[in-house]
Write a structure and sequence with these properties.
This protein is mostly helical and 282 residues long. It is 67% helix and 8% strand. The chain contains 15 helices and 6 strands. The protein is elongated and about 105 Å long. The structure holds zinc ion.
Amino acid sequence: MIELKTCTLCDKPLPKDNFRKQKNGKEGLNARCIPCHDKKRKESRERTFEKRRRYAKKYRQDNKEQIEEYRKEYSKKYYQENKRKVKAKVAEYAKNNPEKIKAYKKQEHVKRKKRELDRRYKEKNRQGILTKGKIQRDKPENKKKHKEYSRDWARKKRKDPLFAMKHRLRANLHKTLSKGGYKKKSKTEEVLGCTFEHLTAILKLEDIMSHHIDHIIPLSWAKSEKEALALSHYSNLQLLLPIDNLTKGNRDVSGCDIIRVISNHPTPEVLIHVVNKSKNVN
Ligand SMILES: [Zn+2]
């Protein structure tokens, strides 16, 4: 005689192998038979489908950047670990979809061409473009607006030293990076490695206003964007009186200062590389 168990949903007494195992269930079994259990689960999933879809959508929207970063990181890793497989897949896809590949290549070619033309146009008409901006600004209807805008800006800078410092650091970073032919893509605070507030706590705001912000290891030593960014970290900043900064050549950097900067820097190896390449250390 086989022992039977009654399903709580359909009320049928059934042999025990008609029930799934469940650790905390009576006799270690699910209370519902397998078909009933699956039916219930399916119903519940259908009932909550909309809700789950909405939730997932919201989650994706709220975490767009993290997801994108994760995706990039993951595909990079996957590619590194499965190079041969990925290459074979791509080759196979290209073989099976010659039309698509042709269209893609053409599209890329057009894009490249357009970029190149844009670049050439800008180069050729640089002065013209600048004058155009100036003409716009000097138009009577814009003149007043521009004046108000710059006055507000100046007032804000006077009244809010933190704002002024943020602006100076940002402009400073932009200038030094673009001088080396690099672009400023990262946020200033990210490059500094600390918040503006933290920086003012170290450098003292009133001093910042009367001094120049100086790079202890000169930015001109950087030979790449990575190095320029590393040298912009807050551990490499100090305040100098304007006169000191203007007379300070790249030559007078003391080894002591360099060691201090390197020991406080998140990527010391980059700085060591920069310093080793330079012969201007005392
Ligand atoms: Zn049942």
